[in-house]
Description:
By secondary structure, the protein is of the alpha/beta class. Among the domains are: 2-166, P-loop containing nucleotide triphosphate hydrolases (Rossmann fold, 3-Layer(aba) Sandwich); 499-662 and 684-697, no CATH class. Helices cover 61% and strands 7% of the residues. The strands form three sheets. Strands 2-3-4-1-5-6-8 form a seven-stranded mixed beta sheet, sandwiched between helices. Strands 7-9 form a two-stranded antiparallel ribbon. A two-stranded antiparallel ribbon has the order 10-11.
Amino acid sequence: MKVALLGNPNSGKSSLFNQLTGLRQKVGNFPGVTVDKKIGFCKLKDGSEIQVVDFPGTYSIYPGSLDEQVVLEVLANPESLDYPDLAVVVVDSTNLKRNMLLFEQVSDLQIPCILALNMLDSALEQGIEVDSLKMSGILGVPVVEINAREGIGVEGLKLEIFKQSQNPSIHENVSVLSEDYQSLAKEVQDDFKIDNSYLALQYLTQSQKLTFLGFENQKKLQSIAKSRSFDPDRFQSNDTIKRYADIGETLAQSVQQVGIRKESITEKMDKVLLHKVWGYVIFLAVLFVLFQAVFAFAAYPQDWIDAGIAGLTDWLSDVLPASKLTDLLLDGIIAGIGGVVIFVPQIAFLFILISLLEESGYMSRVVVLMDKLIRKFGLSGRSVVPLISGMACAVPAIMSARTMGNWKDRLITIMVTPLMSCSARLPIYTIIIALVVPEQRVLGIFGVQGLILMGLYLLGFVSALVVGWVMKYIFKSKGRSYFVMELPTYKKPRWSQVFFTVYEKVKTFVFEAGKVILAISIVLWVLSSYGPGEQFSNAEDIVSSQYQSLNEEEFENKLASYKLENSYAGHFGKFIEPAIKPLGYDWKIGIALITSFAAREVFVGTISTIYSIGSSAEDDNTIKARLKREINPETGKPRFDIATSASLLMFYVFAMMCMSTLAIVYRETKGWKWPMIQLGYMTALAYISALIVYQLLK
């Protein structure tokens, strides 16, 4: 049995999905589009299993975005693989009149429904009492009281789903249809062999949005509409107005206001947190605490993992026989894995803190605050969500720009979103900051490392605003945009949901980015361990003739360094070195720059692999130690000094994120023109800023 979870944004639909399915869920795509489809599985009381599909949030079946159009396409097409046997419509009990519009429309499509009343506790705080039994009698469908966050009422909902699987009840068609509309619907029903008059009218009203109909059928419907002087906009407005009148009658009989409505805690907090001055001050303070915590809390587990990888490498080098296979394991695979897992604590802490902000309801306020700010730079209010999402990952952030109706505004948002520092850049930032910035405190409490990390994220945000303003001027985008967002009430974070989110993010980092990092580490080891010509094959003789007074350990290090320089990887690094030398980089860093285009996290894995080759000091196997001991032969000073490290940080603030980002920009803009322009301007910005910083600091 396929059960659809439908509801307005922030109605608690996704929380209910997690309560029903737990960890038994997966994320895919709806056919033909890039909209996420969350599918989970749930057992009923008789042991039977149902499939639960969490549909994108939508206010009605008249779509205003691609996400909402997906809902319409499925619900209007009984042949769709995702067409539900039952719809659970989740409504926010504090906003019943607006939320129930979707329920009325879905039930009129003759899909069996259950109405789930969520957030009744918040409704009671506002003096709203709902008689669910009376409402059920009026509507003719089961009405279930739930608290999706706490899991209250979920078992009762499962029982109703089981009952509906045995004996589905369909809400009587309340139809609002005049005689003219009914005769028109009959014509479409006869032509398209469908039973439902409301669905027939949706075919007429929204034929261009229903791609499953095919071009010929769409033309046929447009011809019928024209011949009968049918106005889709007028029908939609009449339909909506009459439905609200019907909903009003239902609520008048089943809902009552008790006492005088008091100002809620959420409203009191919003007066401060959304204040035009204090709102930004508090947000900056929250950001400051977040980045301080990433360094402070993650430092200990990171050091343990770093030392553990070093200990494992030493132990394996002692017990395994000397061979190429052992070298591959130690210098390729183990070094590559070490470059991944060392950053798990920081990724985990970052997403714990972000999840807490989302769960509490504060992140929605951040979006509203940013809307007020970015409009001054000429960006659309709807750009806020992609920009904020870009701090986690650019790929879903760019996809979320689909909600924007104005194409120029959407394009500008897509073009600037990768400038927001994503979580993939965090490993690069933290390893370089830890190398050159001492663990000092300002005023005794503020960590310098955390301040610099926060500064890098703010620099990315400011650059996105500036570039957006420039592009707005170039594209001459004058269309006015609006931004409407439902603000949830403040709530205590659910730790189970926080840790589930962190588990998903860490798993994605380890297994998705990890696969790329490990594969590139192995390829790099091969390219670094073999080379062309006699210079590589006769390396031992050449080094022994040049350095005759070295002890065994010094000779092994010189030999390894010489082999690396004359390997395939070394030749490639030397080839690009002239272009990157003005930035303070050598050929080894150059290799890491190129490989990190696959995924930003690969930079650290590459550096770890490159610098592990030739390492023989037993206490010098941690990633930080390898980088600290690297010397610039031209200056005799550490390779990763202040100037080079600052240059690298600047480069990665502005450089294009990764191939996945380019791929999603190609898909969203339907061509290579804009991805190539984006790659070009971001690469130029990264190179010039890194060049200026290095030349000033060197």
